[in-house]
Amino acid sequence: AQSVAQPEDQVNVAEGNPLTVKCTYSVSGNPYLFWYVQYPNRGLQFLLKYITGDNLVKGSYGFEAEFNKSQTSFHLKKPSALVSDSALYFCAVRDIYNQGGKLIFGQGTELSVKP
Amino acid sequence: GAVVSQHPSWVICKSGTSVKIECRSLDFQATTMFWYRQFPKQSLMLMATSNEGSKATYEQGVEKDKFLINHASLTLSTLTVTSAHPEDSSFYICSAAYNEQFFGPGTRLTVL
Asked: Can you say how many angstroms the Cα of residue B104 is from the centroid of all Cα atoms in its chain?
């Protein structure tokens, strides 16, 4: 079965410091991995994805993620956090056995960036 | 591009009534749309996969007769919550697939 896990319910970071939101995955075959951000009472916004190619993926709003096959991880990172980055972050993997591209989401990590 | 809208953004209804939520892909055609349910500060729970012109595929444990899904065109899918009860109160989010999934802004349903 395919799955993703976000081991931290909450991450607290001071503004200006680097941030990392962790994600590990379990898939058979090559993973299609995604990061989404959700602001309160809003839908999900796409940040970035990994399909193939460079292990370091750059996305929206200065975020990037590093695909690590040996550690089966896809951690989201940003060199300098902003207060406006405070939101709920979801890692997801595409279910390759579903033709429609069903996504399997992690539990979510609440990021809080304090001034 | 790749904008998905939902209507209404919030709705309050009485117990026993039915509520229809629309999901539209505004600038692309989507043969597949997904409907999710989300409880506060929790992950998204996939309810069903909606394919244009065919019956929706429901996830295990989701009542087909309670959550009616219609995907009448390549840009519109609707979710109707029939005979709504307070436990149906939730945040409902749709997405439309075009290479990857693009999400609507969500609909907050409150059943009194």
From this structure: 9
DSSP characters over B58-102: EPTT--TTTEEEEEEETTEEEEEE-S--GGG-EEEEEEEEESEEE
pLDDT on residue A100: 61
Say which of A42, A103, A110 has its CB closest to residue B106. A42
Query: DSSP label at A49?
Result: E
Q: Residue A85 carries which DSSP code?
A: G
CB A111 within 8 A of CB A13: yes
> Which pLDDT tens digit goes with each residue over A27-80?
888 889 999 999 987 888 999 999 888 899 999 999 999 999 999 999 999 999
CB contact under 8 A, B104 and A43: yes
> Can you give the length of chain B in residues?
112
Helix or strand holding residue B49 (H, E): strand B44-51
Residue of B nearest to A44 (CA): B103
